[in-house]
TrEMBL record, chains A, B:
Source taxonomy: Eukaryota, Metazoa, Ecdysozoa, Arthropoda, Hexapoda
Ranges that cross the membrane: none
Entry protein name: diphthine methyl ester synthase
UniProtKB keywords: Methyltransferase, S-adenosyl-L-methionine, Transferase
Pathway the protein takes part in: Protein modification; peptidyl-diphthamide biosynthesis
Signal peptide: none
Residues forming coiled coils: none
Residues that hold S-adenosyl-L-methionine according to the record: L9, D84, G87, S112, I113, L163, V226, H251
Reported function: S-adenosyl-L-methionine-dependent methyltransferase that catalyzes four methylations of the modified target histidine residue in translation elongation factor 2 (EF-2), to form an intermediate called diphthine methyl ester. The four successive methylation reactions represent the second step of diphthamide biosynthesis.
GO MF: diphthine methyl ester synthase activity
Length: 276, 276
């Protein structure tokens, strides 16, 4: 049987009691390690579970997932995922492949940024489509998420912006070599995201586009390490967000709707230096 | 200190390890009991936690929350919530009132239907605004959620419909009496919801409205008891959903986008009797 177990967002104790019991009963434990940040060091997790952990990075999922599914035919195999098991398309795909191979699958849900973002006080049912903001390069600066943000804003909805993560990205030079070499992991901060958003807005202004979704004075909410003890939230203008150091990853950014419910406004106030 | 602890969606073991440790360390434990269904009987919960539980129903939250907050000034008080602490506006309001009174608050996140709905295979970042479908009465048949569903559909997004819960609703006759009497609890099923949606569509057709958001043949996804062992998911047309018995509550309904991603379609297929 394959147990796909969400670890939640905080530290090692954010696994559910059910999840922990299952991990401890499994023969082999894989830990998905490339769509998020691990709650703590592997050693600490191994100690807490009382079990050895096999790291499953992108290469593993792409090349050796079948091996894992074969094991799950006659053994109890745990596949641990930061957040909730259905947070990333890769995991949905894996679960489907398991079912194709007639491997029984059990899911253990946990907290995900998609719901935990409520911690800033903005109501979950007032969020529109979630967008992802990718790292720009010199030559690749996609901004298709802008239209989604704009649509949410026009419809009076908040937008959760998930910020890019680059883990185990091969260097361009090594792609043609036998052994891949990797870039250091990179996590987009609210500063990086604000910088890219400001750049988009400048371009829109220059090209004479009216009716912008936001400008440099628009209120944004930056969130860092949601669910951790060191969680930080800051509500400020986009231009200030660019200078805002929320510390280590993961970060997320929210563009609230223009008109806030009084409870939302009052709750957000605690994260702002100015009167909202 | 006030600990607001999410219990997740399944049984008593869906609390996180962190949450359980905190509950066991608290002096007083309240359990919010009117925005969702409890994971099991109170006795089972008390046995699992090794602690007595005080039920906090709507009257309690409205009339005696200040008492709880005063206790939390010098005692460790747990407030347990099914799902995630930020799932309902009431809880956000309570946390704000605690902060106003300078009571320290710690949140323990958990799974919520807003993210666990991903279990049907529809990608979370393709969901638009969530809507709530209320029970209709003879004289009160609101359908403002239809416009939101339509907007999501037009924008190529899925819609999660949360279905109404009526717990501890006073009878109209008892409202003028000294002692309130209560109606039996009522939970909207996917059948009830489909019935109301079909009725809305019939009205729209009669009034000559073109470009409907859906019709009786449109694919819907019904979900029951998400996160429980007895979880059931069914993908079928709206007209079939009206005859679909998914068993005991809670139920949710999803209207998928018209164009599905191949992985979404393949995943949904397992819940359908027909070729999607």
């Amino acid at each position: 049987m394959l147990f796909v177990i969400g670890l939640g967002l905080g530290d090692v104790t954010d696994i559910t009691v059910k999840g922990l019991e299952l991990v401890r009963s499994c023969n082999i434990i894989y830990l998905e390690s490339y769509t998020s940040i691990l709650p703590c060091g592997i050693e600490e997790m191994e100690k807490f579970y009382g079990k050895a952990i096999v790291i499953a990075d992108r290469e593993f999922i792409e090349q050796r997932a079948d091996e894992m599914l074969s094991q799950a035919k006659h053994l109890n195999v745990a596949f641990l995922v930061v957040g909730d098991p259905f947070g990333a398309t890769t995991h949905t795909d894996l679960i489907m492949r398991a079912k194709d191979k007639e491997v029984n699958v059990k899911i253990v849900h946990n907290s995900s940024i998609m719901s935990a973002v409520g911690c800033c006080g903005l109501q979950l049912y007032h969020f529109g489509e979630t967008v992802s903001i990718p790292f720009w390069s010199e030559t690749w600066k996609p901004d298709s998420f802008y239209d989604k943000i704009k649509r949410n804003r026009q419809n009076g909805l908040h937008t959760l912006c998930l910020l890019d993560i680059k883990v185990k990205e091969p260097t361009i030079e090594s792609l043609t070599k036998k052994t891949l070499e990797y870039l250091p992991p990179k996590f987009m901060s609210v500063t990086d995201a604000a910088d890219q958003l400001l750049s988009i807005i400048r371009d829109k202004v220059e090209s004479g586009e009216a009716d912008l979704a936001f400008n440099e004075n628009t209120l944004f909410v930056g969130l860092a390490r949601v669910g951790h003890d060191s969680q930080k939230i800051r509500a400020c203008s986009l231009i200030k967000m660019k200078e805002c150091d929320l510390g280590s990853p993961l970060h997320s950014l929210v563009l609230p709707a223009e008109n806030l419910h009084p409870i939302e406004k009052e709750y957000l106030q605690q994260f702002s230096e100015n009167q909202l």
